[in-house]
Amino acid sequence: MATKSSRCLIAAIVRYVILSLWAIIAFFPIYWMVSTSFKPDIQWFAWPPVYFPDPPTLTNYMNVWLGSEQYDQSQYAISSQKPLVSLWNSTVIALSSTFLSVTFGSVLAYGVSRHRILSEARMFQLLMLRMIPPIVVVAPLSLYYSALGLLDTRIGLIMVYFLTTLPYAVWMTKSFIDEVPREVEQAAEILGASRWRTVFEIVLPLIRSGLVATFLFILILTWSEYLLALIITKTQVSMLPIELSKYQGSTEGRVYGRQAALAVGITIPLMIVGLIIRKHLARGFSFGMVRR
Amino acid sequence: MARIELSDLNKSFGAVQAVKNLNFTIEDGEFVVFVGPSGCGKTTTLRMIAGFEDPTSGEIRIDGRVVNDLEPRDRNLGMVFQSHALFPHKNVAQNIEFGLRMKKVAPEERTMRVREVADMVRIGHLLDKMPSQCSGGESQRVALARTLVTNPSTFLLDEPLSSLDAKLRRELRAECDRLHQALKRTFIFVTHDQEEAMTLADRIIVMRAGEIVQVGSPMEIYSNPVNYFVADFFGSPSMNLVAGEVVRDNGIARFRSALFDIRLPERLKTASAGKGTLGIRPEHVGINVGGKTDATLPVRLVEPLGKDTLLYFDAGTDRAFVAVSEGLRMADTRIGERLTLSLDERRLHLFDASGRCIRVS
Fold it and tell me: Under an 8 A CB cutoff, do B102 and A191 touch?
């Protein structure tokens, strides 16, 4: 008969084996992306697969991000715009729309949480809006945008991202505001604080981690959004996910190495943001951060 | 200075009427306790006075001025909440200082006054701590200090001690009493704990189902409850209440139940016949005293408390008939032993079928 401690040990071993296997499966594509980005072109398709670039090379990065002279023009000219321009577009559009979404979303969420300006049914309808597959709305949207002159503009994309992510912002921030006891706000009010002062000095600092988590969640959504960007942008504005897709099935075939180098470049900014705000993320995603 | 008047005050939440037609005046400097079971409307009334709830109808006046439309911050009141409601992201000193900052008091004066009130409620050593590092009792002292520092005309306390353990409750109860004596301000205290109400109040307002049932000093409420509900609510252990009927026998009024047959005292002799309830507090029941015997009942449970011993008798109902014996003299009483009981007729209460106390002479 196994003792309690040996049973615990076996359970722990099984748990770690399963989790380790799962971690390998989950991280392999990321490893493969990073590894491929450093491989010379003959190793992109090699069989058996080359797991470690030999020798590692920065050629893919130089070609994608700097447009090196080593490759001839026809091989480089996959995109109409240079990736650095796309990086700038993605940064401006994703940050602006996320900022707008979280700002307006949290104001709306405060109204819903404290003054019930939207009934529960309306809140669900708001979320249901987001359940509509984007492909359904792109056709009428592109017509409207064409009429309004918003096609292929940054403002156009910012607006559509702001509106499509607003339901998430409202739902997420509302759950954080609900966590702040009403009495804490009332204590501030009776001590002489105005409503705005209460919101800025009491509520916002208490839901800061939640706002940061919401911000990152929406930033990831907009940063990696593909379909709306594909329909709304043409030649003037290009986004990174669109750029990335151009390396698949283009006339040159599959240029995996350079695609991987671009993908690494797209991923790094989000990872940096995540690292900077990691302290808030852990608290924000764990909810219940206000001690009652 | 604050005299608070409530006139014809009503509050409904949808179809539920939480407060019904309240009329009373709280005098300046008075310590008034609202007491009643959960959902009786006491907290709603307090929140209307604070300005967090708008009355459905009626007026609230503070020093003669109608304040219905004033924001909570403009009423010059201080409130201590049941949950303490400290700002979790500010340390104790910042919590206390908050009200002064809102009133734009100069920084040097703020520091001085924070120190002053912190010493007053004995939390001077906690000023740099965060609320999460404070115990329940310390948090409540911080909440008190945060209210004290703004020097409000009236203190509203919404069940401030209910989240604390018994010892801390007693300590902070004494603290509240001391502050009231020292500050001479109006205190309005809400509680469902009758013991708190009895020990703190100048005047108790007993509420039930949104209405005032009785207003009076603790002794008045305890000694002369207006109805069955108040009689049952106040006192620990609560009053013995025996259901039976009043009968008239050759012009003499008697109370009869399965176990009692008692001649009603002179002051109740004109009580009309019919169903009724007899009430007597445990401390007014004599055990084996000799002389008059009103009932002989078997002991169901003995509770020696040190100073007193509680004896629970089987009265043929779910609820035991309780008597108090001084000291531990009866602590060794055997379960099932039959003892003779005599009721102090000067202390008998009689309630009619509707629960109202019969007061006839």
Answer: yes
CA distance A106 to B222: 52
Judged by CB atoms closer than 8 Å, whether chains meet at B150 and A187 is answered as no
Interchain CB distance below 8 Å, A206 and B89: yes
Alpha-carbon distances of B202 from A130, B106, B199, rounded to whole Å = 60, 37, 9
Answer for the pair B285, B240: CB distance below 8 angstroms, yes or no: yes
CATH of span B4-226: 3.40.50.300
Given CB atoms, is B88 within the 8 Å cutoff of chain A? yes
Contacts of B89 in chain A (CB under 8 A): 205-206
Interface with chain A: mutation pick from B89, B159, B162, highest number of A CBs within 10 Å: B89
Contacts of A292 in chain B (CB under 8 A): 83
Q: How close A280 comes to chain B (CA, Å)?
A: 14
Check if B289 contacts A (Cβ < 8 Å): no
Q: Where are the domains of chain B?
A: 4-226, 232-352
Q: Where are the domains of chain A?
A: 1-29, 83-285
The per-residue pLDDT string of chain B (361 residues; one tens digit each, 9 = 90 and over) reads: 689 999 999 999 999 999 999 999 999 999 999 999 999 999 999 999 999 999 999 999 999 999 999 999 999 999 999 999 999 999 999 999 999 999 999 999 999 999 999 998 889 999 999 999 999 889 999 999 999 999 999 999 999 888 788 888 888 888 889 989 988 999 999 999 998 999 999 999 999 999 999 999 999 999 999 999 999 999 988 999 999 999 988 878 889 988 888 888 888 877 888 899 999 999 999 987 677 788 889 999 999 998 999 999 988 778 899 999 988 888 888 999 999 999 988 899 999 988 999 876 5
Q: Which CATH number fits domain B232-352: 3.40.50.1110, 3.40.50.920, 2.40.160.10, 2.40.50.140?
A: 2.40.50.140
Is A205 in CB contact (< 8 Å) with chain B?
A: yes
Q: How far is A189 from chain B (nearest CA, A)?
A: 6
Q: B72 in contact with A at a CB cutoff of 8 Å?
A: yes
Task: Scan for tokens 């990335």, then name that residue.
Answer: A244
Residue of B nearest to A204 (CA): B89
Please choose, from the candidates B190, B138, A198, the residue with its C-alpha nearest in 3D space to the C-alpha of residue B146.
B138
How far apart CA B198 and CA B233 sit, in angstroms, is 12
**Per the CB < 8 Å rule, is B89 touching A191?**
no
Contacts of B319 (CB under 8 A, 6+ apart): B241
Segment B111-140, tens digit of pLDDT: 999 999 999 888 999 999 999 999 988 999
Task: For residue B334, count other CB atoms closer than 10 A to its CB.
Answer: 8
In sequence order, what are the beta bridge partners of B57? B10
Contact across the interface for A186 and B98, Cβ inside 8 Å: no
Percent of chain A with pLDDT over 70: 89
| CA distances from residue A107 to A188, B43, B74, B109, B320 in whole angstroms, order as listed | 19, 29, 25, 36, 58
Q: Does B133 touch chain A (CB under 8 A)?
A: no
Q: Is there a contact between B72 and A197 if contact means CB atoms under 8 Å apart?
A: no
Residue A188 in contact with partner chain B when CB distance is under 8 A: yes
Q: What fold, for A83-285?
A: MetI-like fold (1.10.3720)
pLDDT tens, residue by residue, A95-146: 999 999 999 999 999 999 998 888 888 888 888 887 888 888 888 888 999 9
Q: Report CA torsion sign: A61, A66, A70, A74.
A: positive
pLDDT in tens, A50-109: 889 888 998 888 888 877 544 444 444 444 457 888 889 999 999 999 999 999 999 999
Residue that the structure tokens 């020292």 belong to: B182
The residue of chain B nearest to residue A190, with distances taken between CA atoms, is: B73
